[in-house]
Design a protein that fits this description.
137 residues; alpha+beta; 23% strand; rod-shaped
Length: 137
């Protein structure tokens, strides 16, 4: 997944004086005064946070895949859907209207013509289609 850098710092509150911890003085090996049990606890906590972050990444990646699968296909696929459903009632979500319900009249090369339930004729460019589904009335 990646690398984790754990920096506990030397903890010296007086940067003007020379620190004598193992970080500042490589000959010394005292973990900057942090007891080994505390270091292990901090490492365990960080490992758990990393595991939770990895789980969240996997969950979000799966969600992105689901959303991508719900996106409309290429304009040719959208056109083919409307051509196959001329005369059928469909529900279309577009970039300019969240819910257009009506009967497919014509499927052109760049747009579809729909007679909405309120009697309006709506021309929808395929590039504006977000979702489309068959409507049961």
């Amino acid at each position: 997944m990646g690398s984790v850098y754990i920096d506990f710092g030397c903890g010296d509150r007086y940067p003007s004086r020379r620190c004598n911890c193992s970080r500042c003085n490589p000959r010394r090996n005292d973990n900057c005064g942090i007891p080994p049990e505390e270091l292990l606890n901090q490492i365990r906590l960080l490992a758990e946070r990393l595991r939770l972050a990895e789980t969240r990444i996997i969950t979000l990646d799966n969600r992105v895949s689901e959303l991508e699968a719900g996106l409309p296909g290429e304009p040719g696929e959208i056109q083919e859907f409307f051509e196959d459903n001329v005369g059928s009632i469909v529900s279309v979500t577009t970039t300019f209207d969240p819910n257009i319900v009506g009967t497919v009249l014509t499927a052109g090369t760049d747009a579809v013509e729909i007679a909405s339930l309120d009697g309006d004729i709506v021309i929808i460019p395929y590039s504006s289609v977000i979702t489309v589904s068959m409507e049961e009335l």
